[in-house]
């Protein structure tokens, strides 16, 4: 029996230790500096996708790509010996394994693991099996539950290399800067999916009183209560050049909504709404300028009980819109652009509150949550555990209908740290075995940039827990508080004690029990009062099951030539205009589409002027799949791969009457020649099309 087909048994996992290297000393320049970069992270086709949990038989693999995945990095250096890298990645989480592996390479740049804020967008359509965690490498990827699916070391190595490049480039671009904080509100585009659990924080309070309790941000009248009980703020840390004309450098932002608008049933690799938002904000801030413009990263915030939606959209309408793939992509673009518009506004707001001199303090701790004792004598759980409602899934993802939200085990004494969690009996042994090796140290991060504080939270905090944590930080001196979720580790959901006791999906998925809220409050409070952090040393230890994961390597070409012939000529569809936007599409046919295990090495497709060979541009960017949202997908028939692509452009008026053609290197850089006598297909954007 091959490793890939091994049934989930009580096999001893591997223990891997990652050494921590002492960081190089930082130069004292006396000036605030900032640098930013953007690097492609797109994985290979047929990669496992994270976020929705396992299936009984099949698997959800990437058979198409809607946009590319990126890491967006903002490095801040206060010139007084402190430096931090804020990294927003289009991944399900910035895992501890990725962070520790990355820190091995960034020590030479003065960045130890405590100075790396690797924050995910909590993207449910990015690569899975990146946790080095026996539980989440099984239950956070949409793979067959009957097969062992451990950590994908090839994927991890690829991501670490790309992240290393991103941080190195941002550090190389450091220049004198001024920085500030900005905020914009986006009401109606998120909804609290666990309203009943949130209500437990306010017993006996009706809707009207609940609105008053949670609404300190002036929600518009008429919004449904579930769209009021969220954090609508998009907050950013912004940096621009210190000298006039103060050209923008970059931003790191947070927003509280799940990046899960793409339905589980759609096998697309995509950055989801956060990627659309970041790209749209960058375009708005760049405007008509031909200069590169700022790098704008957007990471997850108070996401634990908040999903994205359209204003006034019911849950049933949202589910229906997600089931049709065309409508699903339209929904994703509409919500993403709305978020991106406000993200750009938050950046503009920050530009009015900048300072050329800010003290930076990066604080880091790794407390043990297992069997921990609180100041009042209460204890945390001795072992991690999930409840039956976890397998029911959230409203958006679905799960096993046999289970239900709110299922409780009242027989437990209420002094038990896991009370009243009811284990999922049908799969309890399997789940307990994978949770047996759950890491019991949770890394906590706190960045103070003047009086703006950024908390790095190792999981998915709910709206009200985020509010409570922010209140603790304000009591310690913060003026503004940002919370970056799934930052530096993924430890599941994080709820208040009352939300936990309700045992809805979020509370059921809070691994360490009812006192998790108080443990977080105590340790973040201690961190806030710390003057400095000792440089992390020793090794980081991981207990993991190594897995074997497929990549798209078939069908092989009938020849060993590095540039095999196409089996059929490529095709270019007639361009069309839909709602004022230009739609261009085509397809080609190929043999082996790739040579390596990554996609992030240059564009797969580019559009060029058929007369001059010049690469065309749209919105001041090369017209290729790296700079615009392309749909690229494949089907396999008769031993061939048919690749289809489509791009939708807002900025296209300058292309009228030009003859255009597309070229492709094929995914992963494999050159492909047309058949003898065939030409690259061309289309003319005639005036009738433009009209």
Task: Kindly describe this structure.
By secondary structure, this protein is an alpha+beta fold. 22% of the residues lie in helices and 24% in strands. It is built from 16 helices and 31 strands. The strands form eight sheets. Strands 2, 4, 5, 6, 7, 9, 10, 12 and 14 form a nine-stranded mixed β-sheet that branches. Strands 3, 11, 22, 23, 24, 28 and 29 form a seven-stranded mixed β-sheet that branches. Strands 15-16-17-19 form a four-stranded mixed β-sheet, covered by helices on one side. Helix 1 crosses helix 3, helix 7 packs across helix 9 and helix 12 runs parallel beside helix 15. It is globular. The N terminus is likely disordered.
Secondary structure class reads alpha+beta
* Mean pLDDT reading: 89
Number of strands: 31
How many helices? The count is 16
Question: What overall geometry do the principal axes of the alpha carbons give?
Answer: globular
Please give the share of residues in helix. Answer: 10-25%
**Could you tell me how far the N terminus lies from the C terminus, measured between alpha carbons in angstroms?**
62 Å
Rg on CA atoms, Å? 25 Å
Strand content: 15-25%
Q: Are there runs of 5+ residues with pLDDT below 50, and where?
A: 1-10, 594-600
Largest β-sheet summary? 9 strands, mixed
